[in-house]
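ok so for the tutorial part 2 we go from a plain amino acid sequence to predicted structure tokens. step 1 is just haveing the sequence, like this:
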Amino acid sequence: MNFSGICLSCFQHTGGLNPCPHCGADAAHIQTSLQHITPGTILNQNYLIGKALGQGGFGITYIGWDLNAWRIVAIKEYYPSGLVTRERGLVVTPIDEDAKIKLKKGVNQFFKEALVLGSFNTHPNIVNVLHFFRQNNTAYIVMEYINGKSLKDYLLARGGSISFTEAMQILCPIMLALDDLHHTGLIHRDIAPDNIYLTVDGHAKLLDFGAARFSIGEETQNAASVIKPGYAPLEQYSGSGTEQGSWTDVYAMGATFYRALTGKVPTAASDRAMGKALQSPRELGVNIPEPVDKAIMHAMNMKPEERYVSMRLFEQDIEHAAADEKRAESAMEMPLFSKPQSPWPRQTMPMQGPQPFVNPQPYSSLNVQQNIYQGTGLNREQTFLNVPVPAPAPQPYLFPQHVPISQPILYEEKKTEPGFFEWTYKHFRKKLRKFVRKYTKKK
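step 2 — the prediction. this is what the tokens look like for a chain of 443 residues:
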């Protein structure tokens, strides 16, 4: 197939122009590294490879074109740096026998976790997995292409930081999505603003799942290549998977919150272990509720056992703190001890004493006749019904007399007699001794 008129950076028709009039990419400089697959390569007889979108310690992500569905996709290749090289621009080759064993184990783990991610295709905050396959001595995952920008780029466009309300709207759905993933045993271990994407339709989606987890389980090699200073906790520096869990992602999410609110990357865990302090967002002058500040610092605790054990607990504390702050603000807006004002105008009337009750509209004779007639079965033409009945004379309204509530009669105890409680106690002891004597005689 001839793709000479297609830009391999955005897959738009160039009309023979270079650079691309749509994205500005130069066709001669699309491939930026020898480790990347040559753009224009077709994988699995279905996916046309374009430029590399990004590379981590254990994978390279490319933009691609689905030749069957005729749409843009994202294709992630398992490529553990430091363990493999690429021959002829395509085949992944381990550097030695030990790396060969680890590569095989990593590919199996990568493929297994692709199956897990495929079960979350209906989740609104997790990128959809469309296909996965093995080829070129490695494995690939085909995902939906996210049209938007990363949280990292979004923060830069907003001047480095955003408000707490906006950060909560973006990150809280991601936290709940991570909690769902943790229940399947999957750990991301690479949470950072560059792995959270904001789509054009207003959704936040988590990308690049488990860069470290996809590697080789507990035998993580080249740990520095998957560690983002400031976002990775101290246990991730050791390279031992046995010490890592959901609390590892909790630390990274707390660091992401920190970066979004302060505009600064947190102090690296390795530097904190050497005694360098980490200032809280409030200490840096960020206007956030104190419980939120404490929740973020609690999530970034150096000791794993002193952090949140789950992402959902972290998210709940953030939500509760925001709700309490909102209630406090609404209470401050209403003046204290103020009575609600009636929308109806009030008429001031002069103060008067009690007046006798006078019916403003006494029943007329016609009304009395009708009331008498109803339900009696009598003929209305009878003469006595036409006799006007005088209205009852108005009677003065008498207020009920005040009846004082009788006070209970208090009987003073005689000093010569025991009080009530003393008498009850003695009576109880007497009955108890009598019962014990009777019970012991039967025995």
